[in-house]
Amino acid sequence: MQDEGLSPNASTFTCVLKACAIIGVAEKVLELHARIESEGLLEKDLIVGTTLVDTYGKLDMMKKAQEVFDRLPVYDTITWNVLIMGYARHGHAVDALYYFEKMQQHGFYPGDVAFIASLKACAAIMEIHRAQELHAEIVKVGFDQKGNLINNALIDLYAKCDLIVEAQTVFDNILIHDVVSFGALIAAYAHLGYDGEAMLCFNQMLLESVSPNEMIYTSILKVCSNLGVINRAFYLHSQIVKEGLSEELNISRALMDMYSSFGLLQELQEVFDRLLHYDVFSFNLLIAGFCKNGYDELALSNFEKMKAKGLSPNSNTIVCILRACANIGASDKGQQIHEQVIRCHSLETDLAVGTSLVDMYARCGLLEKAQEVFDALPVHDLVSWNALIGGYCEQKHSEEAMSCFDHMKNEGFLPDTVTFLSALKACSDMQSICQGMQIHIEIEKIGSLDDDPMIGTALVDMYVTCGHLIEAQHVFDGLPNKDLISWNTLIAQYAKSGHDEEALMCFEQMQLTSFSGNVFTFSSVLKSCARIGTISIGLDIHRKAVKGGLVGMEIMVGNALIDMYSNLGMLERAQTLFDSIEIQDIISWNALMGGYSQLGNERIVFELLDKMMAKGMHPDIVTLSIVLKACSHTGLLEMGQTLCETITKSFDIKLNIEHYICMVDLFGRTGHLDKVACLIREMPVSSNSSLWLAVLDACQKCGQTNLGILAFHHVASLNRRDAAAYISFGNML
């Protein structure tokens, strides 16, 4: 146009400025601005001036927009609107509200654009009181009845301010809902965790024949994840494909995140493979999905693919991949990633990455490296302290864990649930009741016991492990919210420590609550029944396990029942249960063999051993003990020696104290004390009173005084109060 000698007029400038705003060419706008100034159009034509303010506002050049606005000789409502909208659009909320007030002070009444911009500004800075004043003005002038634009802005405002009731009220007052109003309300419910309400709102939208858009699908897919509605998720995915939205990046990411949460990794991979373009965020979703669902090798494999495509990992990638390394103990790979982190300055100073390195090294057992990385962190936070303390605790370095716990508090950090759980575990491992009680006092001061049942459960565990059952029961009784885990902990610890009657009483108390028990509960109480020989209670617990659907489905319960009936001498029931288990494991076989051995049916023990090995099941240390006892009871010396040698060599089993005791008993029963003497010389550990007592008993049976005297001195030096040793020694002399 200019090449033909034609000069642009006001309309031309207006059109070109609008085009510049759309394509974002700031340099051209500055050039046009200068031309407008030179031709005096800024003072002459309000439309040109308003368009220039609007253009600068859309380009986030608010300083220039304000300069132009201030130079205008006159304003109209549109001029004020574009200035306010410019400020609101780019997050200058305070300025937007300021000029909204100024507009009214200058006698201009706001239109819907100014109200929408001001509502947007209120949402940005959570200015709830001002927003409610604006809402009242809107209702007063009837703007809420003029269409959905302002109502949608109100829904969005209340949603962002977490005022979901007010958002729903505005929505309900709209005569005809559109996709924007539905989208704002669904997003609000989803954001605040009201997933059921979000799904109901989505269903209402479909009933009103409003088609979802990209934003709504993104929100509702997350809702499906949270609600665990897999079939609905599949249906939505099919609709997305049908509507041609499956290639939209945000929807693809939402689908990947959803399938990851369901553990549907094949579907996750398929969505990823259909992406038109791969970026770091998409790879992160894929890697995190595999890592979260226990496929750490696949996570590492995709990490390599990501790098092969020339994509540089960000901190989220590194954090996830270090977790994968920790999960599978891949310390070599973790160290390679550490070297990569060191080469990248932005990652080296990232606290989340540093904390993940501490966690990885600690969980891989490289505690010195974990401490080294921790010490090199520019700052520490509670998460990094928890990683270090948890690492020491997991590797059974309980003293170091408690030292770090004290150091952390000295630096002014207040322990959280994770910290307390690690510290209490360390106290349990050390059986340090004093430190445990001190932590209990700290927990009560902070009030964590009332807020988190996990801490109460850990306290119960600590007290029982340390042998303080009264305190454990007291803590348990005081828990405001007992869950199944806390019940299981108390029952299991009672059973583990041999307080079987207390375990059974606790189980009966639990039955009076809403908890009926799970596989762990029944496994614990059945062990207690087996030990104290309570047949009637055992039968009752068996009935309850059947009623709860745990027999036949859970092998742990089946094994515990076999063990209980075996110990109670009810081998027909034990055998029936064993035969009913679809796939027996080594514990099943051991429980049944142990029962037959206990009743002196050694022939069946050997038959079961043959059947077990014929099925490809490998004996373990318990199997070996049972077999050696059977050989001892029947005096099968050669068979016992052969089985011991064959099983240990073929299945890489190292003899423990119980095996040595069985062999001593076998040699003693068959009169081969010379072999006992040889065995003693070969044993890696000889400072065990039970072992020497077995030697003493063997000497008593064979009348071997010299070796018997030696055995007695060993028992007496290890346990002076062992009455059985004095009786055997007296009988031998």
Uncertain stretches: 1-6
- Count of discrete alpha- or pi-helical segments spanning 4 or more residues: 46
Strand content: under 5%
CATH class of the domain at 482-583: Mainly Alpha
**Main beta sheet strand tally, sense and closure:** none
Which overall shape is indicated by the principal axes computed on the Cα atoms? Answer: elongated
> Percent helix among the residues?
over 70%
CATH topology of the domain at 482-583: Serine Threonine Protein Phosphatase 5, Tetratricopeptide repeat
Distance between the termini: 128 Å
Keywords: Repeat
Protein name: Pentatricopeptide repeat-containing protein
InterPro entries: PPR_At4g14850-like_plant, PPR_rpt, TPR-like_helical_dom_sf
GO biological process, one term: system development
What does this molecule look like?
By secondary structure, this protein is mainly alpha-helical. Among the domains are: 380-478, Serine Threonine Protein Phosphatase 5, Tetratricopeptide repeat (Alpha Horseshoe); 482-583, Serine Threonine Protein Phosphatase 5, Tetratricopeptide repeat, CATH 1.25.40. Helix content is 76%, strand content 0%. The protein contains 46 helices and no strands. Helix 31 (469-478) packs antiparallel against helix 32.
